Amino acid sequence: MTAVAEIMDYDEVLRRFDPVLGLEVHVELSTATKMFCGCANEFGAEPNTRVCPVCLGMPGALPVVNGSAVESAIRIGLALDCQVAEWCRFARKNYFYPDMPKNFQTSQYDEPIVFDGGLDVVLDDGETFRVGIERAHMEEDTGKSSHVGGASGRIHGAEHSLLDYNRAGVPLIEIVTKPITGAGERAPEIARAYVTALRDLLRSMGVSDVRMDQGSLRCDANVSLTPKGESGFGTRTETKNVNSFRSIERAVRFEMRRQASLLENGSEIVQETRHFDESTGETSSGRRKEEAEDYRYFPEPDLVPIAPSREWVEQLRGTLPEMPWERRRRVQEQWGLSDEELRDLVNASALDLVAATVDAGASPSEARSWWVAYLSQRANERGVELAELSVTPAQVARVIELVGEGKLTHKLARQVIDGVLEDRGEPDEVIAADGIEVVSDDSSLQAAVDEALAAQPDAAEKIRGGKVQAAGAIVGAVMKATQGQADAKRVRELVLAACGQQ
Amino acid sequence: MSTISRDEVAHLAGLARLAVSEDELDTFAGQLDVILDSVARVGEVAADEIPPTSHAVPVTNVFRTDEVRDGLSRGEALAGAPATEENRFRVPRILNEEA
């Protein structure tokens, strides 16, 4: 279709169009059991071992709603500043596809359990953008299909498909934003920041694993363009299951450019689902979007309505933990951070890690410095999230402790952390295995000091003459000779002593 | 008074994966009309103060505690499958859609 060469420049897109976004996020709840049956809700079990007549859609099997899942749905709604329905029902969404053995998905249609809220999203520069929440409703996840034959395990060219129904019936909450307008050039960033903020919120509430890589948090991005100066929304596309925060930003940006190119050529946008390709950064056509009426929704006859009492709702409100934005404010105050320092901490996704490191005994400033600087850099090199690094806050706290005790220099500490990152065990094990220790044996240090003084007689003379700042050059030479294993403070003392200054 | 067209019946049959012959399209269109007309008459009788009802019993909030219960063994689960492979249900390839 549209080759990359002819796709419109991003700045040009913004000169001619206003983007409108709508984001649909599916969250798998981390309840013990599925939405409508007592099968374990567990990721990674052997295929078809977490199934029963209900989630396999066998004749006569009857669903019963998981009360914890309803509580989570209401709590999520409250955290998103939503109204909670006084009365609502489940509905059948009818479609034939082997990922749902019942041939319908039990969902909610026009009566979502929570609706009309919003989430304040902090952008990279610290600015806040409020994303309106249209609704959040309860439904169930589908089974997992794998496609056999064909080139790449993709559906095209596959000879047949294999189904594992362990995931069928896992509780899902679908959170839908109101149309996001007025975002302009920041639309892609807002999309990423919104899903990130939602992830942080849901994680702090403990209602989901929120792992995009494992599919417990999934985002579909609706994008349309409105020509500048016009009102109303253009035809939208829905890019499905974009599975990382960075991909959300890239997918939205690409769709804006692709649609603008088509509109500029006088072509029409086809309302369809599209697939994002991580390797090319482009989206490709999926299937035509069904009309809602084709799903022939109707109230689920096997489940009675849900009517949350106001007492119950208030009781659930009382169980909400400190919200991420409240926490950020508290941490900023407690640790005495500037707005910029807080922003760097949040942008590095390091707040939880730093807090856990502080809880493990480290000072906030040391903990912050490790996670935001050195470890962020390591995570970038590996292309992983900071939290995915194989080092724990407790291990970082231990290394900070050893530095504080003078048993490690900063350089050695980094070596120890690198060892932990290479899965070589606890910091103390890496230290023992590599024989890492600060050279504190004065006799060996003394020899290095004497050697350095002899090699730089000018500097030695200055120190003897009282210019103690010249000691820096000698200390540097000793540190170099000992490959950073010496305690710089002790070296300085020895240098000054040798020159009669102490 | 025909309100359901042959095309609509064909569309619904397609959505429901039913093979319906040309003759049956006419038959079903007529029968569905009768059903819709009957339901419409119920609508005429129902007064404004009677809300639409989907459930026969006035019960709400039936919940289950979140405790794991044993389901089927894999052997039992797969026993009724027309075909299996690698402990999964094997189905014909799916066209025109992406999982």
UniProtKB/TrEMBL annotation, chain A:
UniProt entry tagged with the keyword ATP-binding: yes
The GO molecular function terms of this record are: asparaginyl-tRNA synthase (glutamine-hydrolyzing) activity; ATP binding; glutaminyl-tRNA synthase (glutamine-hydrolyzing) activity; transferase activity
**Enzyme Commission no:** 6.3.5.-
The GO annotation for biological process reads: glutaminyl-tRNAGln biosynthesis via transamidation; translation
Show the segment(s) annotated as Disordered. Answer: 271-293
Domain (Asn/Gln amidotransferase) ranges: 352-499
Query: What's its catalytic activity?
Result: L-aspartyl-tRNA(Asn) + L-glutamine + ATP + H2O = L-asparaginyl-tRNA(Asn) + L-glutamate + ADP + phosphate + 2 H(+); L-glutamyl-tRNA(Gln) + L-glutamine + ATP + H2O = L-glutaminyl-tRNA(Gln) + L-glutamate + ADP + phosphate + H(+)
Q: Pfam families per the record?
A: GatB_N, GatB_Yqey
Alphabetized, the UniProt keywords read:
ATP-binding, Ligase, Nucleotide-binding, Protein biosynthesis, Transferase
Check the record and name the InterPro entries matching this protein: Asn/Gln-tRNA_amidoTrfase_suB/E, Asn/Gln-tRNA_Trfase_suB/E_cat, Asn/Gln_amidotransferase, Asn/Gln_tRNA_amidoTrase-B-like, GatB, GatB_Yqey_C_2, Gln-tRNA_amidoTrfase_suB_CS, Gln_synth/guanido_kin_cat_dom
Self-association or partners: how does it assemble?
A: Heterotrimer of A, B and C subunits.
Which protein family is it in? Answer: Belongs to the GatB/GatE family. GatB subfamily.
Task performed by this protein: Allows the formation of correctly charged Asn-tRNA(Asn) or Gln-tRNA(Gln) through the transamidation of misacylated Asp-tRNA(Asn) or Glu-tRNA(Gln) in organisms which lack either or both of asparaginyl-tRNA or glutaminyl-tRNA synthetases. The reaction takes place in the presence of glutamine and ATP through an activated phospho-Asp-tRNA(Asn) or phospho-Glu-tRNA(Gln).
Protein name per the record? Aspartyl/glutamyl-tRNA(Asn/Gln) amidotransferase subunit B
- Identify the species of origin: Actinopolyspora alba
Automatic annotation (TrEMBL), chain B:
General function of this protein:
Allows the formation of correctly charged Asn-tRNA(Asn) or Gln-tRNA(Gln) through the transamidation of misacylated Asp-tRNA(Asn) or Glu-tRNA(Gln) in organisms which lack either or both of asparaginyl-tRNA or glutaminyl-tRNA synthetases. The reaction takes place in the presence of glutamine and ATP through an activated phospho-Asp-tRNA(Asn) or phospho-Glu-tRNA(Gln).
Which Gene3D superfamilies does the protein's record reference?
Answer: Glu-tRNAGln amidotransferase C subunit, N-terminal domain (1.10.20.60)
Signal sequence residues: none
Pfam entry (one): GatC
In short, the EC number is: 6.3.5.-
Family classification = Belongs to the GatC family.
Q: A single GO molecular function, which one?
A: ATP binding
Identify this protein by name.
Aspartyl/glutamyl-tRNA(Asn/Gln) amidotransferase subunit C
